[in-house]
Write a structure and sequence with these properties.
Blueprint (H helix, E strand, L loop, with lengths): L1 E4 L2 E4 L10 H5 L2 E9 L2 E2 L2 H14 L8 H14 L5 E8 L18 E8 L7 H5 L1 E7 L14 H12 L4 E6 L2 E5 L3 E6 L2 E4 L10 H12 L3 E4 L4 H5 L3 E6 L3 E8 L2 E2 L7 H17 L2
Helix pairs in contact: 6-8
The structure holds 4'-deoxy-4'-aminopyridoxal-5'-phosphate.
The site of 4'-deoxy-4'-aminopyridoxal-5'-phosphate (PMP) has 13 residues, from α6 and β13.
Length: about 280
């Protein structure tokens, strides 16, 4: 693979970042993942707006102008011949030259890293066809989940718990209410109404969430942005998740119990179809 590090396109084996980089020592960094379909970027603008917000919340410098970031994304698609897959972009506070909890007062040049992941089968996904199975775990993450930091240890632990239970993923619960999935937003459908937690510091503001809710409202579906319990989810007609790479993926089982009929339902299927069709049309 050809990857990008601070201005250079390099073979992945030659790419280097300092051991003093605050991303490495402090998880002092943020990231975005943009999906590529037919060699084009899905919702690029949305992801860049969220990057700006994450950087702003952490008083971190912009690594590059928006047009330059777009150019780098496109160059990596071309150099790695990505048709279907992802582009991972990470910005950290950079290398202050030593370890110190304080942000460097004079600021440091941010470290900018991008790489591609080829993933044929995102659209034609076996998991989307059969539906995902999840277990619930307590949400033990920090209180600013709206900032997309590289601090992903707890979500990794939750994914391991899901694998150990023989299922696909985990939904997290706080104060008796579902927050979100380990790397996706969580939804239920009851009597035709789509229910998903409202935006706050408690969850990541999914770019796919925003787009899917817009399409749902345009299609005259009812949307309720509010928290829901595990019991409600088990009593729902359907459940699903959204993320840049999962699009809309039905959830058919939670903690070993079937949701609805236990098979992917019509509302999630319709939303997935609309999302993929419209995203392909708007891709750049
Ligand atoms: N929640 C969490 C915790 C996530 O990590 C992600 C994916 N990065 C999402 C939700 C979905 O966000 P998006 O739709 O922007 O991929």
């Amino acid at each position: 693979r050809t990857v990008y590090v601070n201005g250079d396109y390099l073979p992945e084996t030659e790419a280097k970042v300092s051991i003093f980089d605050r991303g490495f020592l402090m998880a002092d960094g943020v990231y975005e993942v943009v999906t590529v379909l037919s060699g084009k970027l899905i919702d690029f603008e949305g992801h860049m707006l969220r990057l700006d917000r994450s950087l702003g919340e952490l008083e971190m410098a912009q690594p590059d102008a928006r047009e330059d970031l777009l150019e780098i994304h496109r160059e990596l698609i071309t150099r790695n011949a990505i048709d279907e897959g992802l582009i991972y972009m990470q910005v950290t506070r950079g290398n202050p030259g030593d370890r110190d909890f304080h942000y460097p007062p004079e600021g440091t040049k941010p470290t900018l890293v991008l790489f591609t992941q080829s993933m044929p089968g995102l659209i034609d996904s076996a998991k989307a066809k059969r539906g995902a199975r999840v277990v619930t775990v307590p949400d033990l993450r920090w209180g600013r989940r709206d900032i997309k930091t590289v601090q992903l240890l707890y979500p990794s632990m939750a994914k391991m718990a899901a694998s150990a239970a023989g299922v696909d993923d985990a939904w997290m619960i706080e104060d008796g209410l579902i927050t979100e999935g380990t790397s996706n937003n969580a939804y239920i459908i009851k009597d035709g109404r789509i229910v998903t937690r409202a935006l706050s510091h408690d969850i990541l503001h999914g770019i796919t969430r925003a787009t899917v809710l817009r399409f749902a409202r345009e299609a005259q579906m009812e949307v309720e942005e509010r928290s829901f319990t595990l019991e409600e989810a088990l009593d729902a007609d359907e459940a699903f998740i959204t993320s840049a790479s999962a699009f809309v993926t039905p959830v058919v089982e939670i903690d070993g119990e079937k949701v609805g009929s236990g098979a992917p339902g019509p509302v999630a299927a319709r939303l997935r179809e609309i999302y993929i069709d419209e995203s392909l049309k708007a891709a750049i």
